[in-house]
Amino acid sequence: MSSIKLILRKNKLDKSGEAPLYLRVIKDRKTKFISLSLKLNPNEWDEDRQKVKKNHSNSTRLNAYISQKVADAKGEVADLERKNLSTSARKLKEAIKGKPLTNFFDYSDNRCEKQKDTLAYSTYKTYKAYLKKFETFVGHRELMFEDITVTTLKEYASYCSSKMGNNNTTINFSLKVMKIMFREAQREDLIPLDLFPFNKFTVKKEKSTRRYLTAEQLESFINLEVPNNYKAQIIKDMFIFSVFSGGLRFGDVLELKWNNYDKKNSRITKIIRKTGRQHSVKIGQKAIDILEIYKQKDQKQEDTIFPFTTINEEYFTDKEHRSLVTSRAIALSSMYLNKMGKQLELPFNLSFHLSRHTFATRALNNGMRIEHVSKLMDHSDIGITQVYAKIISSELDNAVDKYIN
Questions:
Q1: Closest CA to 271 of 213, 221, 316, 225
Q2: pLDDT tens-digit map of 157-173
Q3: In the chain, how long is the greatest CA-to-CA distance?
Q4: Which of 178, 287, 364, 373 could link 244 by a cystine bridge, Cβ 3.0 to 4.6 Å?
Q5: The whole model's pTM is what?
Q6: What pLDDT digit, counting tens, does each position of 194-207 carry?
Q7: Beta strands 51-52 and 278-282, pairing class
């Protein structure tokens, strides 16, 4: 059996001293509260008689409104219980409100599928993986947006840390995917704007470290003798090329074609994979020298420059195939670069993305204006580039402490 009672939630007093009135539904020891969109001063509510006191100017009208709401709710509950003995408190709440609640997992999965063609395939896969992780934590799919509370988030963060071994960065991304789904559901008017438990719970962000090669380390890398391994030499050349061509990302260097290169003006022009924007950058002499190495007598303008992996028509037309090819290429490049880093005795693992960081810190150290660096790196916000400026500033402070004090 279920019970319905009016509750004035005095623990939710607003600035004017009024509390919201709710219908409380209890079913199988589970409680749901349904707002009546009505607020009263505590001294205007008779808890025992479940009525508004006469000291309220509109007591008669409000009591009639409340009585009707209670009668409607009891009628809905009675109908549902006659039809289905296993009706839950959540289902009763749905019926009383007259608006179905939205299942978090069903909505999120559908949202991902709708955006599959507009999202990068790697992003689509990441969203799906993180949603699956949350589903594993919950243990079932019968979870409504309204069921996700601050307590849920705290317990999930604890699960990610203790059971999954996630660091704070990963935990924050896990919550970020959920936040995205909440905001999308709000935009579609499926859940209320005030239903957002993330406002009351945060996970402390870990201090990020931007690794890069110093001038000395870069010179050592350039002069490093690579064993008789064609692929290793290619990835080394791609890394150096990126450093001297505005810090182009791995995927963009991997799929770079000869028709992207304007030899006369020493420029690379292409659509950047991550942003979808056309990007044009003048490249340095070391990058030009590397391009000369890969020239072939019978090459075509449509040929890719660096033969590190197979880039065919399917790569450019099938997002899933492209993601698979890129993932494998990244793994292989990381293996080779990590070995090179160990040869150089670097105090960190060497990965291709460090070429991008290396370009930025070199450019700023050489006096390039930060807005120009931001443009060359195709950053959407100069605030992203300012991270590198902070690195340079920190280096200067350390130099002062070491050599002047």
A1: 316
A2: 999 999 999 999 899 99
A3: 97
A4: 287
A5: 0.61
A6: 889 999 998 888 77
A7: unpaired
